[in-house]
Design a protein that fits this description.
two-stranded antiparallel ribbon, mainly alpha, single chain, 16 helices, 68% helix
Length: 430
């Protein structure tokens, strides 16, 4: 016999790992952990599925059998002949009133529609950093162009306002370098006020220069009014909330006291009360004969209301920062404005994103409260002119379902953007 040795085969690479069991991966794992983790969750899941299925089975025939071509609720019921079905004809008949109100000129619908399209374009460079920074010029022009499109009149009025703000900004920057922040701010405000005062005499003889048909604020309505109030108030309340949050943390007692009193007072008063104040009381604070626009009064009150809540959200973000961030700014020789702009506020705002978005979504939904002061927004149109009309008396579900869809789409898009922005700004995993 030969003395040959037998040597077993040795692998040169490890055996690839086996896939996990089906019950420990994928959708089955998620369902088992989130829906059937224990007896109580299992019972609640089964009951929820039962009620959802029952709701779907009851609502789908009602939606599918809906009527779209009648002129009144009575005709809808005659067509349905006692069967279950929705009367969608109210949407095809009154969609323009639900979107633009019942007084906005029909031939001018293109103006708010164009303003909405330009809104999507103008906010893009603000929301997404990858877009060219040159597009911020469009964002800066948009507020003045939109005012002219929706309210009409001569284009010189918004142009003069834009010129006054630009001139005030340059004066503020120059005076801040020479004599300080407060003096520069006062100089800018005085310059803007003087420019607007003298420009009013210039726009009167040139009122026909590139003008559109004027539309009064009382003619605004529908979902357009909700979008106007939501967009303007959110845009104004964020910078005002930042100022209030910084003022509440100030070392100067007077500024801190004013900010604390303002924030606590506004947060302790319901929004509906402030809207009544805007409708009845606010005009008494202006000189006699001053006819302050109702929409402007409502914008002022909603902005003050939401800025108080945003101030508290941002104050929480400032308090969450470690003391070392402030000391790092001091060690770099930065003054207070530079430290806040370059180091403190970017981190605090990143922490505050969920809270700010929560306030913004709530604010947009709260714009429906203007219906209680006789402003015909989307809910006001449903409760007022549409439901009280002879042809559509007694119809509710179809109209409110349409309103629910509109508000859900807007609020869902805001929520999804905030979650995307949080993922983009999350740097703690690197």
């Amino acid at each position: 016999m030969s003395d040959r040795l037998t040597v077993g085969f040795v692998r040169h690479e490890p055996i690839p790992p086996s896939p996990p069991p089906i019950a420990q991966a994928g959708a089955i794992k998620w369902i088992r952990e989130n829906l059937f983790s224990n007896i109580i969750n299992s019972v609640l899941t089964i009951l929820s599925v039962y009620f959802v299925i029952k709701l779907v089975l009851a609502s789908v025939p009602w939606i599918w059998n809906g009527v779209w071509t009648t002129d009144s609720l009575r005709e809808c019921r005659e067509v349905l002949e006692g069967t279950s079905g929705a009367c969608w004809s109210v949407l095809t008949e009154r969609w323009n009133q639900m979107l633009f109100g019942f007084k906005y000129p029909v031939e001018e619908y293109w103006r708010p529609t164009l303003a909405f399209v330009l809104l999507l374009i103008s906010v893009a460079p603000v929301l997404f950093k990858k877009l060219p920074r040159k597009m911020l010029v469009v964002s800066a022009i948009y507020p003045f162009l939109t005012f002219w499109l929706i309210w009409g009149g001569t284009i010189l009025a918004p142009l003069m306002v834009a010129a006054a703000l630009i001139l005030a900004y340059f004066i503020f920057v120059e005076m801040e370098k020479r004599v300080g922040f407060v003096t520069g701010l006062v100089s800018g405000i005085v310059c803007a006020s003087a420019t607007l005062y003298f420009s009013s005499y210039l726009t009167q003889p040139l009122s026909g220069f590139i003008s559109l048909e004027p539309v009064a604020s009382r003619d605004m309505g529908g979902f357009m009014l909700n979008l106007i109030l939501g967009t303007i108030c959110v845009s104004l309340s964020i910078p005002l909330g930042i100022i209030l949050a910084l003022g509440r943390q100030s070392n100067m007692p007077i500024i801190k006291g004013i900010c604390v009193v303002f924030i606590e007072f506004i947060r302790g008063v319901p929004l509906i009360t402030l809207l009544f104040v805007a409708n009845v009381v606010l005009s008494y604070f202006f000189p006699p004969g001053t006819n302050l626009d109702l929409i402007l009064r409502v914008i002022i009150m909603i902005t003050l209301f939401s800025s108080a809540y945003i101030a508290e959200v941002i104050r929480g973000g400032l308090a969450a920062l470690p003391r070392g961030q402030y000391e790092a700014a001091d060690s770099l020789g930065l003054d207070y404005p530079q430290a806040m702009r370059l180091i403190i506020l970017p981190q605090a705002l990143k922490i505050s994103i969920p809270g700010i978005v929560n306030v913004a979504v709530g604010l947009f939904k709260d714009t429906t409260l203007v219906s209680v002061i006789s402003m015909f927004d989307l809910v006001g149109m449903i409760r007022g002119p549409i439901s009280s009309s002879t042809a559509w008396t007694g119809i509710y579900w179809e109209l409110y379902l349409f309103a629910i869809i509109l508000f859900f789409v807007v609020c869902y898009c805001i929520s999804q953007y905030s979650q995307w922005l949080e993922r983009q700004l999350r740097t703690d995993h690197h």
